[in-house]
Amino acid sequence: MALVVQKYGGSSVSDAHSIKRVAKRIAEARRAGNDVVVVVSAMGDTTDELLDLAAQITPLPPQRELDILLTAGERISMSLLAMAINNLGVKAKSFTGQQAGLITDAVHGRARIVDVVPSRIRETISKGQVAIVAGFQGVTTDTNDVTTLGRGGSDTTAVALAAGLQADVCEIYTDVDGVFTADPRIVPNARKIERVTYEEMLELAASGAKVLALRSVEYARRYGVPVHVRSSFSGATGTLVVGTYGDRIDPNAPSGEEEQMEAPIISGVAHDRSEAKITVVGVPDVPGMAARIFEVVAGAGANIDMIVQNVSAAATGLTDISFTLPQGDSPATMAALTAVQGEIGFASLQFDDQIGKLSLVGAGMKSHPGVSARLFGALRDAGINIEMISTSEIRISVVTRADSLDDAVRAVHTAFDLDSAEGEAVVYAGTGR
Ligand code: ASP
Ligand code: MG
């Protein structure tokens, strides 16, 4: 029989009734003869509520204390879930991240897993019991303090445990039936993707698709963990995240080439509302200016995404440089740039947090010309202005006004024939918060 790691997100365990429902699924998987390890997130919007609570105490809580606070959310759900499973006559035990052997670095709030030593988990499943593990947390050996892995980090806990235990599959249970060609909350006739490569899923997650946390996909690719994204509310098979684009070519087909033509060119359309744009206006167009500006930006700890530099006006010899970054990194970055305005000699700074980013992702675009033209044409027909553009081998991203982002996503989804004929995708739960 198989060793299965199952992860249940917050919307799947939002109240006592949901916890009992999930417990039934887990008990069934165990009774079917599988070894079962479960990773669970905090109930519903608990993590956000704890953050709100901390903000009422102080605007800048110490990171160490914030981590201890947030890990409480997962302790509540893990213990309740273990109780519910025991109630069904199946033995289950819950463990904190530390007890489960999730060792991280010491970066509070976004710690990285450096090792997984799941001896207590192995011991538990070898006795035929279900092990429940609190997601999103670990311990740093530097100080023995509790750490958290960053928002959405329970996915990473699950994939890391699956890798550490050499599980057969890591099942990520959520409130939709899998990975869709766009967020079903915005595009109701989005299509479920049956199978997606690690590379494409990485680009989708990095471009704002929230169905899987980015780090969990990086981890899955590094260790070759097959990930199955599916709903805890239905029995439908979900989306398999496995392999590389080449694997999609059917080896039994008469000609590999033909099969590849049939593989979809585009996997999906992701969107992101969490970034802001800073424009440095009137930068002297001489060597070294971009280097100096981005040294300052990096020094402020900002993780920049897109960059655009205008052609300088010959008359003035001045240029404008715009870049995007997470909204949360903006205040420190604006302050750092303002401090060097005299030294660099730029005219002014503009800040804009009313932007949205749309990304079209698909491994097939490598070998298909005309994808950008079709994307830009769809936006033109919808009357949407493009402010910035960037590309990778398998992605094209554009920045638009935030309030036209939803329309842009729908227009592009239709233009690439991604709309499903089978009716609307179901969103079973969750506030999308
Ligand atoms: N509870 C944490 C969060 O809301 C971790 C997770 O859900 O994966 O971000
Ligand atoms: Mg959550």
UniProtKB/TrEMBL annotation:
A GO CC term attached to the entry: cytosol
Enzyme kind, highest EC tier: transferase
Stored PROSITE patterns: ACT, ASPARTOKINASE
Binding site for substrate: T47, E74
GO biological process: diaminopimelate biosynthetic process; homoserine biosynthetic process; lysine biosynthetic process via diaminopimelate; threonine biosynthetic process
Catalytic activity, EC: 2.7.2.4
Every ACT domain range: 278-354, 360-433
Alphabetical list of InterPro entries matching this protein: AceGlu_kinase-like_sf, ACT-like_dom_sf, ACT_Aspartokinase, ACT_dom, AKii-LysC-BS, Asp/Glu/Uridylate_kinase, Asp_kin_monofn, Asp_kinase
GO-annotated molecular function: aspartate kinase activity; ATP binding
Pathway(s) where this gene product acts: Amino-acid biosynthesis; L-methionine biosynthesis via de novo pathway; L-homoserine from L-aspartate: step 1/3; Amino-acid biosynthesis; L-threonine biosynthesis; L-threonine from L-aspartate: step 1/5; Amino-acid biosynthesis; L-lysine biosynthesis via DAP pathway; (S)-tetrahydrodipicolinate from L-aspartate: step 1/4
Catalysed reactions, as listed in the record: L-aspartate + ATP = 4-phospho-L-aspartate + ADP
Pfam families on file: AA_kinase, ACT_9
Gene3D superfamilies xref list: Acetylglutamate kinase-like, VC0802-like
CDD domains: AAK_AKii-LysC-BS (cd04261), ACT_AKii-LysC-BS-like_1 (cd04913), ACT_AKii-LysC-BS-like_2 (cd04936)
Keywords recorded for this protein, A-Z: Amino-acid biosynthesis, ATP-binding, Diaminopimelate biosynthesis, Kinase, Lysine biosynthesis, Nucleotide-binding, Transferase
Family: Belongs to the aspartokinase family.
General function of this protein: Catalyzes the phosphorylation of the beta-carboxyl group of aspartic acid with ATP to yield 4-phospho-L-aspartate, which is involved in the branched biosynthetic pathway leading to the biosynthesis of amino acids lysine, threonine, isoleucine and methionine.
Protein name in UniProt: Aspartokinase
